[in-house]
Write a structure and sequence with these properties.
The chain is globular and about 70 Å long. With 352 residues, the chain is of the alpha/beta class. Helices cover 34% and strands 21% of the residues. Bound molecules: adenosine-5'-triphosphate (ATP). This is ABC transporter ATP-binding protein.
Length: 352
């Protein structure tokens, strides 16, 4: 077994991934002292690929996403787009990056300007970046984009303000705005978590259709592995815990054959309609439900105080490295590194 990063297919094929996070860290100064919200994260995404970033609240997902979107500068490491560090790009390349990578926020109400109509919200980037010429063409394109996100008839929404729309409709507007500049990657940060279940499912279905039709890549952030399973079944999933990636691999393997005890615990938290499947899950219970503070990380593996497979002297020594345990799948766990992961038995089950 060898130390590994979490860059999937493109690197293996010798291509430069469209976007890479190379050893990216983010340190915040807080009252409790400096915290490392992201610690040496390696990820890569290509157009058409889905990468799900999963973990509990506070695991560093949004911090990683903001760095990927160029909204925050890493304390360490680099974010590269088309192989170029975004923080040393010239203006033209940085503008290409900004157009190519669009961020869809968890709370569309906070990210939509309340004083702008939907027409103004959608046409502003189209006109600013010269995607279309003239207000008539911009309005026509805005109507097409609304139809793409299933807001029909578009004409009935263009003159409305965000407060006149439902949460699901606002989220669709955020997605339509993200599509204005023909992005290569959409970063969707818990973008359905504030919606009611039935609305969430329809917004997820719409995003899934865009994923398939437009060939756009997704960095899809969620605390809910069930949603990663739904959205990212044919992509990869990285599981984050207290700022570090603890497991990475094809989503099907992560769901059906997880190796890290934390991933197993997240999977156990997914309600399972089939009792036989529930029986095959076997993480054992967590030793503690308390998530340690980033300001006082446990020594060694930071999951060890909660881990059902904890072994004194092994897990509370060094920080475990992310190592390849099966083709395409890597885990940061001393016990798995010592005992092996076993064979993955991946059921090609249909997406729920
Ligand atoms: N600007 C900041 N200053 C200080 N601490 C911060 C800042 N931004 C994030 N943090 C801290 O960094 C840690 C990771 O936060 P982050 O929002 O990235 O996690 P998350 O996994 O996205 O969680 P959630 O799902 O709750 O948004 C948290 O402890 C958070 O309080």
């Amino acid at each position: 077994m060898t130390a590994t990063d979490t860059a999937p297919a493109a690197k293996a094929e010798g291509r430069t991934p469209l976007m890479t996070l190379n050893g990216v860290s983010q340190v915040f100064d807080t009252k409790a002292g400096p915290i490392r919200a992201c610690d040496q994260v390696n990820l890569s995404i290509n157009p058409g690929e889905v990468l799900c970033l999963v973990g509990e609240s506070g695991s560093g997902k949004t911090t990683a996403a903001r760095m990927a979107a160029g909204l925050a500068k890493p304390s360490d490491g680099t974010v590269a787009y088309n192989g170029i560090d975004i923080w040393s790009m010239n203006r033209r390349d940085f503008s290409t990056f900004r157009r190519g990578v669009q961020y869809v926020h968890q709370d569309p109400y906070a990210s939509l300007n309340p004083t702008r109509t939907i027409l103004q919200t959608i046409t502003a980037p189209l006109l600013k970046h010269g995607v279309v010429k003239g207000s008539k063409a911009a309005a026509q394109r805005a109507a097409e984009l609304l139809a793409k996100v299933d807001m029909t008839p578009p004409e009935s929404f263009l003159s409305k303000y965000p407060h006149q729309l439902s949460g699901g409709q606002r989220q669709r507007i955020s997605v339509a705005r993200a599509l204005t500049l023909d992005p290569k990657i959409i970063i969707a940060d818990e973008s359905t978590s504030m919606l009611d279940v039935s609305i969430r499912i329809s917004v997820l279905a719409m995003l899934g259709r865009l994923r398939d039709e437009l060939g756009v890549g997704f960095l899809f952030i969620t605390h809910d592995l069930a949603i990663a399973k739904y959205f990212g079944w044919n992509g990869n999933t990285a599981v984050m815990y207290l700022g570090r990636i603890v497991e990475f691999g094809p989503t099907q393997q992560i769901i059906n054959a997880p190796t890290h005890p934390y991933t197993r615990a997240l999977i156990d938290a997914i309600p399972e309609p089939d009792p036989d499947l529930t029986k095959t899950k076997g993480a054992g219970s967590l030793r503690s439900l308390e998530i340690p503070s980033l300001a006082h990380l446990p020594v060694g593996c930071s999951f060890h105080p909660r881990c059902p497979r904890f072994e004194g002297g092994l897990c509370d020594g060094a920080v475990p490295e992310l190592i390849t345990v099966r083709p395409g799948q890597s885990t940061a766990c001393h016990v798995v590194a010592r005992d092996g992961a076993g064979d993955a038995e991946v059921r090609d089950e249909p997406v729920a």
